[in-house]
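Quick illustration for those who missed Monday's session on complexes.
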Amino acid sequence: MPSQLSLPLWPQGQQLELPLISKLEQEVLAKHRIAMQADLQARVEAVAAEIAQRKAGCRCSECGKPMQNQGNKKSHVQTLLGLIGLRRAAFRCADCKLIRYPLDEALGLEAGFYSPALGRLLALIATLCTFVQGSEIAERLLGIKISPKGLWKVTQRLGEAAWKAMNDTAQRLADVRTAPDQAAPQDAPDVVVLGTDGCMLGMQRRSTRRHRADPTTPLPPLPPLPKQEGEGFRENKTGVLLLPAERTEPSAGRRSVVRRYLVSCLGSADEIFNLLWAKLLLLGWLGPQTVVVIVGDGAKWIWNRAELFPNRCEILDFWHAAEHAWDTARILFGTESRKTIEWATAVVDLLRAGKVEQVLALLERMKPRRASRSQQLLCEQAIAALLEYYTDNRTRMLYDQYLAKGYGIGSGAVESAHKQVTHARMRQAGMRWSQAGARRMLALRVLLLNDEWNALNSLVATAA
Ligand SMILES: [Zn+2]
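Prediction with zinc ion bound:
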């Protein structure tokens, strides 16, 4: 009996008849699309006529001198309702060589071919999926033909505007640090949790873009990624802010938060802390009494900057502390042995109970005896490393107290932030980013995930 699965799902060459309702939908869409496009065209022309009637001169925005009328220039703009033709007067400053189009300015058009509303929708698509998938989705959903490259361009422009706005705000608010009390809101929360961490992003190493020999041949393959980490990678830092009072437990052991705000950058530790600081101020979450609970994995760059917040509680992520104990147990007693499980469980239980001093004393007493010299050395080094890690962080491991205060003990929120901001869009198989491209995409993803996408409406995307 032939297997049904071996048959092609759609028989070759057979045209499938569309259901009647689909045909009707298409007919109505096509008919009204034409009417909507014509309506928009008429309204744009009315604005153009009104501007022309004013016969007002145009002054240079640089030097203020009157500009020369260069006559009408034609152009097009792709809108949600179709392609719209523009006939607009151009003015030129003889000194600055600057050109202004009063109609474009009145309409609020931006650089590029797309209307602001359409451009933002296109960028939204590309913020969610790859440029290739996005170009397909734009055609099916919006009826707009746009190449992956075209989609990339729109996204770059809006991403740059978003990144610039965020960065400018962070820079401006960094100055408020000298006088935090003046900016402090009175109804700020008692406790804020701040988590931050880095993850690696594959970067482009080529200096020029790849080119096709002709339109039908595929692009040449990318050079392979280097084997060692560091080379060809850059650290993307992400931070998350939440109020522990808003943590809920939908089912036993499954915690979730109602709100959390994300920041992300492809930059230095100072940059991510500037962004975190700015976000705290903008949210009104940093008052004179607010305790900032900082959760980190032990990376020095985090603790070095924690001092920004005089009212703070530093917590070493419990899962990193526990993982370190497990790694050490495996070196001491083997990967799968009963002793490994017993020892690691005992250490982790002590840690959770806040008995870090007891764990330190236990580690100091340990004198492993191994038959081989190399094994002996390995065990001694493992114990010394764990002892150092816990000693460095002993004041950040009072887990019983943190739990009692409701601060939480883990950096789960940061780990999930990484997945949402970066992994889901930017760490798919084989993806490589330019610095500018990564920075812009991170800015857009943060806006989307913070439910702040509408902030893009107030930004003008001019830079290409
Ligand atoms: Zn001028």
